[in-house]
Every structure is written in C-alpha cells, then in structure tokens.
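Weekly structure sync, notes
Attendees: PL (lead), two postdocs, one rotation student
Agenda item 3: pending single-chain targets
PL asked that the sequence for the first pending target be pasted directly into the notes so everyone works from the same version. It is reproduced below exactly as submitted, 201 residues in total.
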Amino acid sequence: MIISLIGPDGAGKSTHVKYLKEYFKKLDFETEIVYPFNYFILRKVLNIFKNNKPSKKTKQNLKINNISLFKLWPIISLFDNYLHYLLGIKLKSSQKIIITDRYFYDLATAFKEFGYTTNYLYKIYLKAIPKPDICIILNGNPQTLKSREHKDKHSIDFFERQHKRYKQISKYLKIPSVNIDKSMRACRKEILRIIYEKATI
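Predicted structure, written out during the meeting:
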C-alpha cells in the first residue's frame, strides 16, 4: 500500500509521516518512508553534468536553450516519475506499507511556481502522474505555514500561492484535505480516519 502526504512547505508532512510509520510499526506492519520529491534517474544525470564543468561556449549555448529546456522539463520529469513509481515505490508496496513524504504532485507545484509550465500542461501533468493508493493533502492558513518555516526564505505571497494551488489540486484530483490549523492530535486523528475509510488495513 502506498500512502502519500502532500502539501505546502510548513504543513507538517515529515512530522506526520514519521508518526504514521511508528503507528503502523506498533501494529506489526512493515513500513518504509520514501521521498519521491527528488529525481530518480535524472538526479544521477544532473550530477554528471555538475561534476563536468562546461566550457564558456557550452555555458552560452545553455543560456540560449534554457527556456526551451525548462518548457520540456516537466515532460522529461514525468518519465522519471514513472520510473521512480514503478521501481522505487510500487514494487516495495506489495510487501510493506510505503509512506511518502511529498509526492510527484508537489514537484508539479514547483514547476508552476517557477514558470516551467503553462496552466494547460500543468493540469495534464497532474492527471498523468501515477496515483498512490491513498493521498492526503495537508494545508492551512498561509500565515500558519509561514510561521512554521525554519528559515525566513519565502514571503507570505509564496505561501498564499501554495495554499491556493493545493486547494485546486484537492478539487481537481478529488484528494481529501486536512486543515493543519487544528491541533496536532486532531490532525492525526483526521489523517487516520481518511486512511481507514479508503483502505482495509
């Protein structure tokens, strides 16, 4: 079984993922946490380019072609998502409960934030992503999200955009959402309720 927690920065995904792992462990289920926000195969390819510094001419060509590359990047990433899903997540889920801290939907919101994709392609990308067995969005008031940020890296506008995007994802993909403005105990209770409603564990 694959259970994914997604949502804006500061929504408490990692905290709740660790709680779920301990919860299922106490019930004698073998569980594993997976972090699919990073690239699977592409990460290795990018590391090769990072270790081999390009010449001045290559750098100039990269600057010229970077706009086209950014537009193609979500499509390239989608293939990487499927490989990660099939080889790094799905195969394991037949033997244990896989809990993902973030999911490929979070990567899609990053593409939208940085302008790598249009609204039309963004929606296609969301629909094309392989679905986990259970997905839950953790979302909250932008002020609450910002207050939980470890380093003051983002403006309140950033959290307002994230909050809005995840509300749209919830509606567009029919993914249940948990309001993290409630107490930690109330959030955990709601997360478990959704899990038990959607799966027989």
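Discussion points:
- The longest strand covers residues 134-139.
- The radius of gyration is 18 Å.
Action: rotation student to compare against the earlier draft before next sync.
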